[in-house]
Structures are given as structure tokens and as C-alpha cells.
Amino acid sequence: MNGQVLLTSMVGEHVFINAEEFALLADKTLPTDSPTFRRLQGKQIVAATGEQLPLELLAMKTRTRLRRLAEFTGLHMFVATLRCEHSCPYCQVSRQSSDKRRFDMSEETALKALQMTFASPSRNIKIEFQGGEPLLNLPLLEFVVTEAVERNELERRNLSFVIATNLALLDDEVIEFCRANHVYLSTSLDGPADLHNKNRPRPGDDSWERAVAGIRRIREELGTDRVSALMTTTEGSLDRSREIIDCYLEQGLQEIFLRPLSPYGFAVKTKSHAAYDVDGWLAFYEEGLDYVVELNKRGVGMVERYAAIILKKMLTNDDPGYVDLTSPAGIGIGALVYNYDGDVYASDEGRMLAEMNDKTFRLGNLHSDAYADILLSDKLLTPLESSYAGSAPMCTDCAFESYCGADPVFHHATQNDFVGHKAFSVFCRRNMGVFKLLLKRYESDPYARQLFRLWANR
Amino acid sequence: MSVEVRFDANSHTADAIQRAAYRFADRFSIELTQDGLDYRCLLHFATEPDAAAVDDFRTEVLDQVLRERIRAETEGARNLVLSLAFSNTHLVDDGDDPADQHTPR
Fold it and tell me: In the predicted model, is pLDDT for residue B100 greater than 70?
């Protein structure tokens, strides 16, 4: 980058040196008393002959970085129903049906799912209700929360609840339920009304109006921290990053996650994921990130979450445990999905693939398989083991490996291979682009550097 | 219709070539033999040979050779990290099912 060579350690600490110094380092002739050698030594990228301390420090940092792994599955997604009153073209899983019994999770299935949830050794258990639109099966949500809280009196875990909802059905009953049980809400907001409503058709064509009204109400009645929003990027978003961010600010939201469109489900069926390429998305992301930095400079607090996740990996020894950017992959060991019918999936994307008749990531069923059978099945262990980034060509000697992850579901979906050939990987190109952008801003803009440090340590 | 592709047996393994060939089963079938210091692959196409498929096959063989080598080189670290992930689950050692110990009321 600009004639500089990037060096990273196995825990992600980085140093840029010039090409001449790099040549000396590669020849092992860089003087050990030079400032550059000392900088590298300070980040355990090099050690002088016979030195033990850098190795011990690096081992300690590695242990810190990996400590979350032994926590095992912390996120448990309950698919309360597949029914939804929206008909979004890129949604992979929703059903337009009035037949409740057919697509709703039963209490019996929910109890089995709770049994599996608490079988995880994780101290932190997050139960996330997914759909369809989970508020269409509110009685099941109430049942699960009541059972989980009661059970947790003995278990003493850090238990939290999130409903992933479009908020169109938010009413007094839902508000009171969330207030009484300290339930968080995660919603979808794609940007300005015309963009959001085009992405998310529903009867009345008022998805945006309902989402915005819901966000306002939750912030006023439950607290500003109780609702967050996620956006889905479509072709129509690409030249509107500033408007999208402004829309978030108008709702009082101080975080935005500039996400790419996933390659799963209807997104593949409708070919909408092919409607824009990686470079198009990267240009969108760069414009959005720069705007967020500019807003902060003006005193308007705003965080871009994807950047914040990566910066934590770049600038601290911690790993935020974001399932798409972990190696070993987050499937199963980071998250499990309990479908309405009792099927257990290694990830939400795995569930979406199953809706397209690809059941590769279906690990078993709550009614017929035991916890050990599911977590030790080859259907989980094979993709976990084979996709490990440290053993994958291109990843194993990539300077960005410690910032990136293994995503066997993505590579299976796009290349029919858990590892994926990284030269053809959209995942690789997209993330490399983001890593380079973040490092470029970090090295060249003193304000961005200070801001990025704040994001990394929050 | 067939196309012959050769790989140096010193720098390729039959296993890597077979793994690559498996991924192309929908485009051609393969006959693999060793011929002196080469592996000789005869790619059989149902219709006209597809030059792009042959190129893709060569790329895939190189990828599989590297995967094999790197997997062997990194086996220790990979196993250590993966075993750490499962270290608190009691799934591997005692064979008990934690879910069975938490039967709901």
C-alpha cells in the first residue's frame, strides 16, 4: 500500500514498513537495534535469536483471542413461525399462509429446543426469535421466555432475548411483553421510505412507516438501547449510502451495519444478488464509511458496525465472535438454529439453503436426535474442520487471515465446496477490500485513526 | 471425445487429482493412470471437449495439491484450536449427553 509492506502477527497486530526494510528483514539482515526492528519486536512479529519473552507474550495474546471459542454456542435462534405478512423478493424463508399449525413452532418443539440451548456450556445464552415474522406467534415467544427464565433460576446463565421483527405488528401487548422480560428488538430498515417499501412489499405498502413508528415507540417507551436496525443492500441502495445513513440518524439510531446482500435463498432464485458486483458494493461501502467518519468529525455520533467488528480484531487482542468472521467457522459452535419443525441447522444461512432443497447444514431434528449426535455429526465437523482458514490455500499465508473468517456455508452456496477457491471467492474479495480500506484510512487520516480506536475498544 | 492431461508425479498426488476430478463429474469422466513420471488423465466428454473445463480442471488440481500439503503442515494447530472449541462441552470425553442431564419439567 503506497509502497509500504504490511506485516501482521498471528493475533492481528500490524506494522507497515517500507520495501527496502522488508527486503532486509526477509534476508535476516535488518539490524536488531534499528527502530523498525524494535517496532516489529514490540508487536511480536520478530524476535531476536534466543529471545523467549516475545513468544510468551504472543502465546498469551493468542489465548486471549481464542478464549471465546471454549464458551461454545451462545446464540440460539428459535424460528417461531415461517408465516409473514411481508413478501420481500429476497427473503429466503417466509410463507404466506393462514395455516398456523403448518408453519408455527409448537410448545413441544420449543421445550426440546430449550433443552438443547441449556446443554451448551456457554455462560452467555442469547435466545433470538426469528421468522417469518415471529410476532405472528407471540404466544410461543411468551412461552419460551417464561420457561427459559424459570429454568435459568437454577442455571444462572447470562440470559438475554431478542426478537428479529419487521415491527409491523408491534402493539401494546408486545411492548408490555418486552418491557416485562427485558426483551430487545432487532428490526429491518433499508433506508428512505421509497427504497425500504420497494424492498419490503406488504399489504398497504407501509412497511417503512410501520418500522419507523415502531422504532420511535420502542425508544420512547422501553429505552433508546432496546431497538437496533439492520439494513439489506439491494441494487437500488448502491448510490444512496448517504441517504440511508441520514435515515438512520433521523430515527435516532447511532449504529448502522452496511451489509452486502446474501447469496442465499430467493436472493439466488431471483438473481438479485447478481445485480451488483463486489466492486459496486465496495464503492457503496467506502462512500458510506467515509460519510460516517465525516459525521463524527462534525460531532454527530455514528458507528458502522462491520468496521467496528473488524477493527476490534485489528486493534485489540479480543475477538468479537462475529460468526461470519471467525475461524473455526461459527456454524454450530457459535450459533444453532431451531426451525419451527424441530430441524436443527448450523446457521441461519444453512436454514435458508434448506428452503432451496439443499439440506447440507441440517444437523438433525430435536425430536429424534440427541445433543451429542447433533454437535458431533459429520455434517458439522467436516465443514468446520475442512474450512479452517489456517489450513486453506491463500488464507494460510494471507496477511489478513486473523481479521477474516472461514465461511463454509457461503462457499458451499457459491462454489459447492466448504473451503472454496479463494481466487474466485466473492467473500474473499469483499473482505480484502474492506480490510484494505480500513487500514488505508487508519494510516492516512489521524481523525479516523482516533475514531477507529474508539470503535475497536467499545 | 477425449482430452489427455498430464501431471508430474513428483509434484502431484493421485489423491489430489482424484479429488479434483470428482468435482468435475458433471462435465467429464476421468481415467487416471500412472505413466512413468507422469500421471496421465484421460478426460472423456459426452460431446465436444470443453477447453474451459480442461483449464478449470488444471486449476482445481493445483488447488487440491496445495490443500493437501497445507492441511498436513497445519494439522497440529488446527486440531488444537478445534479441540479448544469443544473443550467445555463434555461431548468428547465422557460420552454423556448434556441435554439428557437437563430434562425439562
Answer: no
